[in-house]
Amino acid sequence: MHEPACKNKMTVLGNKEDIQSFMDWVSTSESPISLEKAIPIPDEVKSLDPNLITPSMLERYGAIDPMTWKDENWGVFKDFMEVKLTADVELDDEETEMLTANLNTGMVANRIVAYSYVTQCIPPLHAYRRFSEEHPNLMFHMSFDVDTTDKHNTCGFLLVKAGKMLKRWFNPMSYRSFQAQMDGEGGFSSLLALAALKDEKLQVEGEDE
Fold first, then answer.
1. Which of 40, 145, 182, 208 could form a disulfide bond with 187, CB atoms 3.0-4.6 angstroms apart?
2. CA triplet 30, 34, 37: central angle to 5 degrees?
3. Which residue in 40, 47, 43, 42 sits closest to 65, CA to CA?
4. What one-character DSSP code corresponds to residue 149?
5. How far apart, in whole angstroms, are the C-alpha atoms of residue 183 and residue 56?
């Protein structure tokens, strides 16, 4: 049976110091972003046996086994796969002023980083909440496309800051239609355009076109 893959993209905006703090928090020597690093499974949970769980243990750990814990805290059962850091851009003063004004949240955004990765079946929504709670000064934009091997893929995006969802959009449609929606109707790509960021500037050094 085919298990759908969920293709994810996450863009993070903020000041240089807060962005660097986030990158250090989520990265390992093997990967630029890892759920195991950012939201590690407690050692006690790793050894839980669902057949021996008691009400007090359930209350303490919030899970009856490691898989349940991952579902509750990550929103997925496995760490990110096929991970790439796709952009790391520091903005000049004019770009910073323009992007900050268009975000209209009071935050100063002079650096942007972006990641792509694959998860099983669904996006890691619980992890996104934790990311934004742990780094409340950053703005997180997450998009996803679930490959269901038919023309009715489920896709969408979230805009989150400080644990609060500022905007969301979900729809079962093709990724191409989703991207058109993002680019053409005031979505995040349009926001970057307002910041006068060129595609070549978003390219990470050494990354293929």
1. 182
2. 95
3. 47
4. S
5. 50
* Residue bearing tokens 């059962």: 77
The model's pTM: 0.77
Joined together, the tokens standing for residue 114 give: 């972006």
C-beta neighbour count of 200 within 10 angstroms? 7
Burial of 93 by CB count in 10 Å (0-12 exposed, 13-18 middle, 19+ buried)? exposed
Task: Kindly write down the DSSP assignment for every residue of 79-134, as one continuous string.
Answer: --EEEEEEEEEE--HHHHHHHHHHH-SS----EEEEEEEEEESS--HHHHHHHHHH
Q: Is the dihedral of CA 182, 119, 26, 116 positive or negative?
A: negative
Among 109, 113, 112, 114, CA closest to 97: 109
Structure token digits, residue 189: 């790509």
Chain CA centroid to CA 159, Å: 10
Give the pair of three-digit tokens for residue 59: 């209350």
pLDDT tens profile 166-194: 887 776 554 444 444 444 443 444 344 33
The Cα–Cα gap between 132 and 158 comes to 12
CB-based contact 75:179 (threshold 8 Å):
no
- For residue 77, count other CB atoms closer than 10 A to its CB: 15
**Tens digit of pLDDT for each residue in 8-20?**
999 999 999 999 9
